[in-house]
């Protein structure tokens, strides 16, 4: 209910009493109470999460209008309101802190109130006239925070994956494959335990990273299948109380059309409401991607280390000055940023895991934390990979001479002699080379262990660094 004191304010009333709200605000009394109760972080809901909630409200308004559960004119007004906000209007009206009331009731009512008040305006009414359009009785008809929020996390996750992360991974894979072709003929020293190892191709380093990202994308696709199973229609406790018998199936159909993704109703609504396992599964796939991205970013930094006292096998493109005191210094900042973001994603995953196990009985009240951490993880990973690709990977150049020098000077070349002179003889040759500075080739010939022709064949770097093809017969 509402009363107007003057043109600048209105009075709204809920079960706890009356409050004065600025007439310009589209949110209402429950949002106002949440603003006062939760001045925690200053972090507002992610735009993708807001979009997910709006898309759900659009679908429910369409279906409830079709089923005559709410008047058709109100259904149409709610749909128009959601379309306006999805197009960019009134975005500043979603204001509840990420850390808020359990289950997400505060954010949910923020969405309901904004849509109700905008729908009122569309119908020629004043904001706050909830007898005409109610946040609860119309916008939220047949719904509950308890089925809307887990659905919003699912829809938000799918939106973030399709718009941000998957395109970024695809771009990174393509860029790495291009570098693999460009660097395929460059031989460098391999390293294990940060010590010299047998020679490899620089191009294969990049091709390996592309393959790693491809496998991670496949894992994420598999995990995200869990997000396509929706518990919407479960209402307050997973029983479907106050919903039309046809609502559950129809609303999933409409949502599928709105986001162009094949969704399906959960086979058991209570299970879909109680278990956060789908979010843990996706988060785990993100964490797995993050840990390999850290490894790749560290490899890039090591291979670029120097320029005089490090490996300097490759040159990462300098994008900004690297020091406030040392002139001419450039740091591998894009790779450094990547590691920091990945560590944050790993931390978010730990928080999601803890929150997921904290449910009791019919509900998990930690969903606001899961929603923010999961969607934010997807988006910052996607943005990071895109930036790393554009600002770093695409501009990498190779120091071919240095790569070859390291490969030719590596004691690990002696490994290729094992099958020709035996492991112990090869170890003795390596030890003498390290002590005397003589080349492996010179020592083997001096000891008469192999002929010069055979030795040249065995120590052919081009042959040694190639990957053997898989044969089954």
TrEMBL record:
Cited SUPFAM superfamilies: L-aspartase-like
Any Gene Ontology CC annotation: cytosol
Catalysed reactions listed for this entry: L-aspartate = fumarate + NH4(+)
One GO BP annotation of this record: tricarboxylic acid cycle
Keywords: Lyase
Gene3D superfamilies (UniProt xref): Fumarase/aspartase (C-terminal domain), Fumarase/aspartase (Central domain), Fumarase/aspartase (N-terminal domain)
EC number: 4.3.1.1
Pfam entry (one): FumaraseC_C
Domain Fumarate lyase N-terminal residue range list: 20-347
Record's protein name: aspartate ammonia-lyase
Protein species of origin: Nostoc punctiforme (strain ATCC 29133 / PCC 73102)
């Amino acid at each position: 209910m509402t009363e107007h004191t003057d043109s600048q304010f209105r009075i709204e009333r809920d079960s706890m009493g009356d409050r004065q709200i600025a007439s310009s605000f589209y949110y209402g009394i429950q949002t106002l109470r949440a603003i006062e109760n939760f001045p925690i972080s200053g972090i507002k809901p992610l735009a993708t999460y807001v979009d997910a909630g709006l898309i759900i409200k659009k679908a429910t308004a369409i279906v409830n209008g079709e089923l005559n559960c709410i008047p058709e004119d109100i259904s149409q007004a709610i749909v128009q309101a959601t379309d306006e906000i999805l197009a960019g209007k009134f975005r500043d009206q979603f204001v509840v802190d990420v850390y808020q009331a359990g289950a997400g009731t505060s954010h949910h009512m923020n969405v309901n109130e904004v849509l109700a008040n905008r729908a009122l305006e569309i119908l020629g009414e004043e904001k706050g006239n909830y007898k005409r359009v109610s946040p609860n009785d119309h916008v939220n008809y047949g719904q509950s925070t308890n089925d809307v929020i887990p659905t919003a996390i699912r829809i938000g996750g799918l939106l973030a994956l399709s718009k941000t992360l998957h395109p970024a991974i695809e771009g990174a894979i393509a860029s790495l494959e291009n570098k693999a072709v460009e660097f395929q003929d460059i031989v460098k020293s391999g390293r294990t335990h940060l010590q010299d190892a047998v020679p490899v191709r620089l191009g294969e380093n990049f091709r390996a990273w592309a393959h790693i990202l491809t496998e991670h994308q496949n894992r994420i696709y598999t995990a995200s299948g869990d997000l396509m199973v929706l518990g919407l229609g479960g209402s307050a406790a997973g029983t479907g109380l106050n919903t039309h018998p046809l609502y559950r199936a129809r609303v999933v159909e409409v949502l599928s059309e709105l986001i162009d993704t094949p969704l399906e109703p959960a086979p058991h609504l209570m299970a879909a409401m109680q278990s956060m396992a789908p979010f843990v599964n996706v988060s785990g796939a993100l964490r797995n991607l993050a840990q390999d991205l850290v490894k790749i970013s560290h490899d890039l930094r090591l291979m670029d280390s120097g320029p005089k006292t490090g490996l300097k096998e490759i040159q990462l493109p300098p994008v900004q000055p690297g020091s406030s005191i040392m002139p001419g210094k450039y740091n591998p900042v894009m790779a450094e940023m990547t590691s920091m973001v990945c560590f944050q994603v790993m931390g978010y995953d730990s928080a999601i895991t803890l929150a997921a196990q904290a449910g009791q009985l019919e509900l998990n009240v930690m969903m606001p934390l899961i929603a923010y951490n999961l969607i934010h993880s997807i988006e910052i990973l996607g943005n990071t990979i895109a930036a790393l690709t554009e600002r770093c990977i695409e501009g990498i150049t190779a120091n071919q001479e240095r790569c070859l020098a390291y490969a030719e000077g590596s004691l690990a070349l002696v490994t290729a002699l094992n099958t020709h002179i035996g492991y112990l003889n090869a170890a003795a040759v390596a030890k003498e080379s390290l002590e005397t500075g003589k080349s492996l080739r010179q020592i083997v010939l001096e000891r008469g262990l192999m002929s010069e022709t055979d030795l040249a064949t065995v120590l052919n770097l081009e042959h040694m660094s190639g990957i053997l093809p898989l044969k089954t017969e």
